Amino acid sequence: MVCNKDLTYEEFLDQKPPLQEVIAYIDIENEWLMLGVILALTKDAIYQLPRGTIAGKPVSLLELWLKTPTASRRQLLEGLRKDPAKQDAAENFERHLNDTYEAADCKQAELDKKPGSFVSGKDIAMVEPKENQSHVPASDSEHRMKMKDYEIENLKEKESELNSEIRELRANLGANEEKLNNIVKKKDSEIETLNATIEKKESELQATILSNEEKIIEIEDKMKLSIKDKENEFNSEIEELKAFIRRKEEEIFESQEKLKMHQKISKMKDLEIENLRARLERREQDIKWGSFEVHLTSPSAEQCKDVLTRIEDKHQHVYLSDSSSSIAQLLVGPLLQIKNIRSLYIFSTPLTQQFFDFFSSQISGNDTLESLYLNHNSISDVGVTTLVQSLKPNRKLQYLSLEFNTQITSLSVPLLADLICSNCTLSVLDVSNTSIDADGVLDLVDSLKFNTKLGKLVVDQKHKAICSQFVGRLDFSYKSTTAYENFGTTKVVS
């Protein structure tokens, strides 16, 4: 049954339902906590409910919910729909709402048909369908006029009743006014007593405050003295720390400088290592045996020992290249003790002072070695000093080559000139491709006046123009890439 109405179903849903309606149509036994979730009540609100049996809590929950501003039939229906376990309850409640809405509307329509029934203006508008108001019959208009009259009479009766109640209230107010005055007087007396008590407490509090202020001032004075002592102590510690920091900064600066120096040295060492690696990659580390010679390239200590055990009398020429001073010392000492070694070639092997100290004792009295080649950055001015001293008493060495040693400078010229003057067996001295300047070359050439046995002095081609006096006893060489590849031999231009 569908009836016309001014109150729509949506407006009906937005109204708060009566408590009995909810209790009657929703099964809430033993599910009060879930009901609180459905009604969107906060956890604090739920736990503020009075303690007691579970049966009484659902009703308390509903009463609490109905006090919220958002409580409505719609909210309750939507909450039931969201719970999968409450789908049946949601459907039953929705049917109840539809039935209630239709029944209430139809009941109002029946009341409209009875003469003398009292209905409000809003209810009358709800009863009459909106779309039919423009087509109301005349008899209905008369009926409505009568209903208006009835309504006015009822309102007058209610007004009379309200006036009677107002008179009774005024009488009661008059009776209660005296009681109220007595109560006011009593309260005034109590207020005066309280004021006196407050004044007394304020006086006591003021005295306590004054006493506390004196104590506070005393404590503040002590704290100021303590703070000043601490401040002086801290200042002293700060000065000590500053001095300590300055010392540490100086130490750090020195360490940084040392570190920079070490880093530079490390970079130089790394570069040297890379160069050595590059050279090792270019040259195969091996030992080659010829008919009359042995070639050692970057040999290990074990390989040197193996060569010393295998070398024969026919091997009169030994070549050592791209090695170290320690390996050279390990190899050369035993070799010079073998009486058949005629030539010793050492190339690209930086020799230390320790090596020359050892070598000088071996070469000074040697009577078999005829040719000694120390080429390609194997010897410096320091090494020349020791070498020359050991060769002065030597009476066998005929060929001494110091070419391609850029660390030999003009500082070695006096020693070499002395060697030329004192050694009577040396026939060739090669100092080409060194760092000896023109003046040094002239000094060496001048020393030839005192040695008629020295057949050739080999110097750089660039000095040929200044050496015309002894050009017959000189050879001039220029740097050649084949010289290194051929173990130190040079191109000589007469």
From TrEMBL:
It comes from the Eukaryota. The keyword Coiled coil applies. Keywords: Coiled coil. Pfam families: LRR_6. This is Death domain-containing protein. It comes from Amphimedon queenslandica. The keyword Calcium does not apply. GO terms for biological process: signal transduction. Residues 145-258 form a coiled coil. Residues 31-82 form the Death domain. SMART domains: LRR_RI (SM00368).
